[in-house]
Here is the input.
Amino acid sequence: MKKRYTLATALFAATTIATGYGSFKPAVAQQSETWKPVWTADGQLELPTGYREWVYLGSPLTPNALNGGAAGFPEYHNVYVHPDVYAIYKETKVFPEGTILLKELQLTQEAQEEDGSRLEVSGRGYFPGAYNGIDIAVKDSTRFADSQNWGYFNFGHHAPPYAETASAAPIEACASCHIDNADEDMVFTRFYAILSAD
Ligand code: HEC
Here is the structure.
């Protein structure tokens, strides 16, 4: 009798755990957190892999031709976030510790007009061309307490291959502009409709 009771208890516990797991959004809570940043021994950030398959947030566009021939970030800024971080943000509306926001720069197709635009069958405008660089923001309240918990990294503004690691940029080079102008927790969320969409 005692044995059976023990077995039943064990089964009940197992079922409870299984049910709890099922209703606990495993994509958010149970992942192995492979999305966390990887740091070298001397504190450099390693360039993540597979980012073009992450969730695509949007593409602000600053054509060179509209910025004196040399935009600070030429030209499309394709912004990505890891799917697990996206799921956490959608649930909590907070970027978790370890969030990586990755922006890959992409040039426009060759200009035909002074404003940098060209004519394609769909109309006159700007059309994506070659990849041209990577910038990254990482949320880490220990490493970057002095710049509102975010660190900024430039992996090169040129065609791939990009740098494999990068040191945090000085605050005045990147963070200060985000501190002064960003919408929410240092991020320009107004340009990423998917973050607030249903
Ligand atoms: C003069 C202001 C300014 C400076 C300096 C600046 N940024 Fe930004 N950053 C922006 C703006 C505005 C956006 C969103 C619109 C866009 O991309 O044009 C942005 C977007 C980003 C994003 C996408 C996530 C987000 O916060 O919206 C990353 C990543 C980023 N910047 C990294 C960097 C890095 C790395 C540097 C330094 C090398 C840097 N930024 C310097 C203004 C700035």
